[in-house]
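QA checklist item 7 of 12: single-chain prediction sanity check.
[x] sequence parsed
[x] length recorded as 436
[x] structure emitted
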Amino acid sequence: MRHFVRSSCTGRLLALVAALVGFYGGTSAWAFNPGVTKLHGRSPETKTDFRFGQSVALSDLWLVVGEPQNDEIGDFAGAVQVFDARTGRFLRKITATDLPSFSFFGTSVSVCGNLALIGAPGANGGIGAAFVYDLKTGKRLAQLDPAFGVSGDDFGTAVSLGGDWALCGAPGFNGDKGVAYLFDVKTATQLARYQNPTPVVERFGSAVSLSGNLAAVGVPEHDTPLANAGAVFLFDASDRASQAPASLRKLSAADPVLNGAFGQSVSLYGHLLLTGAKGATGAAIGSGAAYLHDVRTGGELGKLFTVDGLFGQEFGSGVSLSGNLGLIGAQSGNGNSTGTGAAYLFDVSRRVELAKWIAPDGQGGDRYGVSVALCGGSALIGAHLDDDQANNSGAAYYYRNISGPLQLTSKAKSGDFAPGIIGADFVSFANVYLND
């Protein structure tokens, strides 16, 4: 474990600097050097294996980071930490004091407006539960429980919040066949239960996403046409004709492969669906890929992968879609060292990779990219096995202003976090000059 005592620092910038932003004129393009803040969990406990960053969500106001193995109120009871999206400042920690050990509160998180939806798949004796919180106050507003749940359902493994609705996956239901549930957030009433039309042991509900009237449910272990090739099922969330509506359609990769895990992660935005397939063939066999579909027609619009992909990189371990931008995590990708993790930003309208991001201070095994979230010009990326505070204590990286004029390459700027010093930011730089 590393120990640091400074809370602010001055560094030397041996690179192109912000003072020269006008050097190449005013050509408009995407910028790949956003400001970045590194976030850590707050706890009086030794943070060994807390896994802060295993889940992340953000909006224009809130940053929400899950810490499902936080031990403060019980072994692996879990916690969620909330930060201000405008400043990156820590605001509060949310714990469920009525939950027992091994509830894993914070396994999944979702944000909509001033509300957070938090999954705890170990709660209720292993049935699982999900909770709605007011982010302004930290007050719990509702607890969501599935009808006729049983131990092992893993309800809350995946959650998504959209308007007045909450979508929660329970991939362990009925011996790992899996289901997903739709709830009314205001009343905590269960509205629908979604399932595979031909239920088999495939952990339906491992990933979920809501947008408008559409619900997407990922099934990465779907075995048609190949074992664990994966699939995504779409449902009309406004359909009240029955408590178990039929799916609108099933989506899969146009080039399915054995253990492709299509549906590992899903993100809806308008009429688009971005789906992660961490075992798909990209630049290399088993490097992973992500697929873009038009949910109106079910047509595949494109396949996204990175040219530096290697077997086992897990590109697609997390995905997030916002406007024309898609963010894709590769938690076992290579950053500063082998297995540090990486994340890739794409223009999905053109299917073009815009940038590869790595943790500036990343180390092997950090799993940067295990979770990703994108909102407008901001991004949040989890690295749940980061060791800054203790072994596998975890961290998250918050990027701001990811779009704008393309200018010079920045290595660091005032306000960025200082690698190696917890809670420290760069204030100023001395001896600034250009490198050839």
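[x] summary fact logged: The first strand starts at residue 9 and ends at 12.
[ ] second reviewer sign-off
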